[in-house]
Design a protein that fits this description.
214 residues; alpha/beta; Beta-carbonic Anhydrase, Chain A; 5-stranded mixed sheet; 46% helix
């Protein structure tokens, strides 16, 4: 395949970015990945700068490789990852960088089934025992989401708590960042929350704020 043929169209709006993202996930689920934008021509073109169409704020879990599960290539995604996709100043600043300097039209919060950070937080809430070291800081930041899941739905499963944590994280991005909130208010940007299912590779929408065309 030539470099020219292996370059995907660049989405410029939140709705176009959303459609491109989910089409890539569909191909991945169906084992029909096209591996766009991964050849020498694409690599060379990116020496002049980057223009990703999506910022993905996801968990650090090794099973959650964003470019693979959404069938993307070089320069397509601006990826920020922390264990349990917890927000700190560095993570928030990185997401704001994508919005302010790269004009990324879509921000995705990406959680997943059987999240170890959420599991650790669930155990801490149930037993009162806190993990050692800096992992405690991660648990502290996830605890409000676990408590919200228990309060709202009585949800006791880790995966239900993951979904609630994705929703809470996505909402906090707008609450804590005027840059992101302004982007959504002007319809230049959308924020969505997805949970990734390990068994079939499917990314499921659990939160949306902005014009993604649904």
């Amino acid at each position: 395949m030539t470099g020219e043929a292996n370059v995907s169209a660049h989405p410029g709006t939140p709705a176009e970015a959303w459609a491109t993202l989910m089409e890539g996930n569909r191909r991945f689920v169906e084992s029909a990945a096209s591996h766009p934008n991964q050849d020498a021509a694409r690599r060379s073109s990116l020496t002049r700068g980057q223009q990703p169409f999506v910022t993905i704020f996801g968990c650090s879990d090794s099973r959650l490789a964003a470019e693979i599960i959404f069938d993307m290539g070089l320069g397509d995604a601006f990826v920020v990852r922390t264990a349990g996709h917890v927000i700190d100043n560095t993570a928030l600043g990185s997401i704001e960088f994508g919005e302010e300097y790269l004009d990324v039209p879509l921000i995705v919060v990406l959680g997943h089934d059987s999240c170890g950070a959420v599991t650790a937080t669930k155990n801490s809430v149930e037993t009162g025992a806190m993990p050692a070291g800096h992992v405690r800081g991660i648990v502290d930041l996830i605890t409000p989401s676990v408590l919200a899941a228990l309060r709202i739905d009585g949800a006791s499963s880790v995966d239900s708590m993951v979904a609630e944590h994705v929703k809470q994280t996505a909402a906090r991005l707008l609450e804590e960042s005027p840059i992101i909130a302004d982007g959504v208010a002007s319809q230049k940007t959308a924020v969505v929350g997805l949970t990734y299912h390990l068994d079939d590779g499917r990314a499921e929408l659990v939160y949306r704020n902005g014009p993604i065309g649904l």
